[in-house]
Design goal:
Layout: E1 2-11, H1 15-23, H2 28-31, E2 35-41, E3 49-54, E4 58-68, E5 72-79, E6 82-93, E7 96-106, H3 110-118, H4 121-135
Antiparallel strand pairs: 1-7, 2-3, 3-4, 4-5, 5-6, 6-7
Helix pairs in contact: 1-4
Length: 136
């Protein structure tokens, strides 16, 4: 069982402005309403991991599967029996950047729980680009 979601927004911010927010896990709670606190062990790089505290007090381990500085990172989050992969991509455009987030949820009841997991993604994307635009 699996669930897929993809959201894309355009922004006048640069990819570097977006990347600064993504790579600063301490800021995630400022733009992602699903996140309360993030603790990472080590630097923001491939192979690093830590714990997300999600809204409602759920603690979930996460692992950075792939990090392409300045353009992309893929993280894996485990919530009970669900495995959530979130692929974050930012690309330069003539007017700033395009930001895409792809969420893939697998495990028992993923088709039912996936929409719950991805529900805040549009709000998170809008808040992320608003913050990035303020920084640019």
């Amino acid at each position: 069982m699996s669930y897929e979601y993809e959201g894309t927004v355009s922004t006048s911010a640069t990819p570097a402005d977006v990347w600064r927010l993504w790579s600063d896990v301490g800021s995630w709670h400022c733009w992602d309403p699903a996140v309360q606190v993030v603790a990472i062990e080590g630097h923001f790089g491939e192979g690093a991991g830590g714990t997300l505290t999600l809204t409602g007090g759920v603690h979930a381990p996460f692992y950075l599967e792939l990090v392409e500085p300045g353009s992309r990172f893929l993280d894996r989050i485990t919530i009970g029996e669900l495995t959530v992969y979130i692929d974050h991509v930012v690309k330069a455009t003539a007017d700033g950047a395009e930001v895409t987030v792809r969420t893939s949820v697998s495990g028992p009841n993923a088709e039912e729980l996936g929409p719950v997991v991805a529900a805040d993604t549009p709000k998170a994307l809008e808040a992320l680009v608003a913050m990035a635009e303020q920084k640019s």
